[in-house]
């Protein structure tokens, strides 16, 4: 996937369509300064914008190969455009994540993109590992990379809420002891 080409296509359309979105996943980690290889793009979008997003994706020759209440997956026949996944925000927690998303420069400032804050990316990763035990190792690696990078600058109270939501309080205590070093 050519991330530059894909983002050049869709970010202008997202802005024109007033799409409420936030970048998540591996590319988001990179935008936050945490290196991580990735092969696709992942976004959290307001579910009310789903129709507009579908039209944007189809206008760029993407095909919707999967759609449920919670996620949509689009794939291009052209390898250069690859796969883009969308999580649908409609609950209070995920809508709050979209509100907290922050604009970041990518590609040496050539693009601006809204990215979820690290705490909210951690929250989504906790949800992912709770929903799919096969992802536990990968998600904890990303969580620890974010915690190691941002340390005491994180909102540990928000992170604790996410861990508690999935009955993972002991894991939270372990990770906070490892990565939170108050001055």
Structural class: alpha+beta
- CATH-derived architecture of the largest domain: 2-Layer Sandwich
Task: Give the overall pLDDT as a whole number.
Answer: 94
SSE series? HEHEHEEEHEEHHHH
Provide the helix percentage: 40-55%
Give the quaternary arrangement of the chains.
single chain
Binned strand content: 15-25%
Strand order of the largest sheet: 1-2-5-4-3
Would you tell me which CATH topology of the largest domain applies? Beta Polymerase, domain 2
In total, the number of strands is 7
Distance between the termini: 42 Å
What are the main properties of this structure?
8 helices; single chain; Beta Polymerase, domain 2; 183 residues; five-stranded mixed beta sheet; 7 strands; 2 domains; two-stranded antiparallel ribbon; alpha+beta
What secondary-structure arrangement, pairings included, does this model have?
Layout: H1 3-16, E1 21-24, H2 25-31, E2 41-46, H3 50-59, E3 62-67, E4 71-76, E5 83-89, H4 92-100, E6 102-106, E7 111-115, H5 118-131, H6 136-150, H7 156-165, H8 169-179
Parallel strand pairs: 2-5
Antiparallel strand pairs: 1-2, 3-4, 4-5, 6-7
Notes on the structure:
The structure is a single chain. A five-stranded mixed beta sheet has the order 1-2-5-4-3. Strands 6-7 form a two-stranded antiparallel sheet. The chain has two domains: about 5-115, Beta Polymerase, domain 2 (2-Layer Sandwich); about 120-180. The protein is globular. About 50% of the residues lie in helices and about 20% in strands. The termini are far apart. The chain is an alpha+beta fold. The model has no long low-confidence stretch (mean pLDDT about 95).
């Amino acid at each position: 996937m050519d991330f530059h080409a894909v983002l050049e296509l869709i970010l202008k359309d997202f802005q024109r369509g007033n799409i409420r979105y936030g970048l998540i996943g591996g590319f988001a980690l990179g935008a936050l300064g945490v290196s991580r290889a990735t092969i696709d793009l992942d976004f959290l979008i307001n579910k009310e914008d789903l129709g507009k997003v579908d039209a944007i994706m189809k206008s760029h020759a993407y095909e919707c190969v999967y759609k449920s209440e919670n996620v949509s997956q689009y794939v291009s026949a052209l390898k250069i455009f690859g796969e883009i996944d969308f999580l649908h925000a409609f609950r209070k927690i995920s809508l709050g994540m979209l509100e907290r998303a922050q604009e970041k420069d990518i590609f040496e400032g050539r693009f601006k993109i809204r990215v979820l804050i690290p705490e909210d990316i951690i929250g989504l990763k906790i949800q992912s590992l709770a929903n799919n035990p096969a992802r536990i190792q990968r998600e904890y690696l990303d969580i620890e990379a974010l915690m190691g990078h941002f340390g005491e600058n994180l909102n540990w109270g928000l992170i604790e809420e996410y861990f508690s939501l999935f009955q993972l309080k002991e894991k939270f205590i372990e990770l906070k002891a490892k990565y939170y070093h108050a001055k």
